[in-house]
Amino acid sequence: QQLLxxxxxxxxxxxxxxxxxxxxxxxxxxxxxxxxxxxxxAPGMGLEWIGSVYFSGTTYYNPSLTSRVTLSVDKxxxxxxxxxxxxxxxxxxxxYCARWVGSSDVFDIWGQGTVVTVS
Amino acid sequence: xxxxTQSPGTLSLSPGERASLSCRASQSVSRSYLAWYQQKxxxxxxxxxxxxxxxxxxxxxxxxxxxxxxxxxxxxxxxEPEDFAVYxxxxxxxxLWTFGQGTKVEIK
Lengths: 119, 108
Description:
With 119 residues, chain A is an all-beta fold. Chain A has strands at 3-7, 11-12, 18-25, 34-41, 47-54, 59-61, 69-74, 79-84, 93-101, 106-110, 114-118.
């Protein structure tokens, strides 16, 4: 069974760095078939793509967040990570990790999401 | 950057009725890169459609997708109680992923 699971602190102070990890089971993060993405959802709002990372380390970021976001992959431990610097209350959201399948161009598997509050 | 605009914001319908949800792109896009997701309260989104008209795994055939260019539609032929949820369209292109703002389908 293919699963994604987000992990990280639920509370971050303003101006500090938000760090989350997505652990992947049942699939190899080194596969050339996938991108690995982060999407967030502020309370009562819609979905916002944060960025995507390929197994090679190639990254793509939302232009509105690119100055504060870094994504990385750890092939040895089969996980990928998100770092968001200088957070404010506007970064309070549910953060999802998800797998993008190149053959069908869809986020086909999502983590359950993790709530991050900036306060 | 492609902007996706979904309409209506909220659709109030009864079980058994037909739902038509619109997703309009700010510029012409390839239908290959247009997907739809369903999200229920407290849950992660789940994929419904990819390539504009291909149902994802396990999605019943009352869901269908259509469209091309700038106008795309998700249709639910007969609403079941479990279909009341929020629906998002999403586009991928030039290394950017974008979501529409969502349409809520609520029970009338």
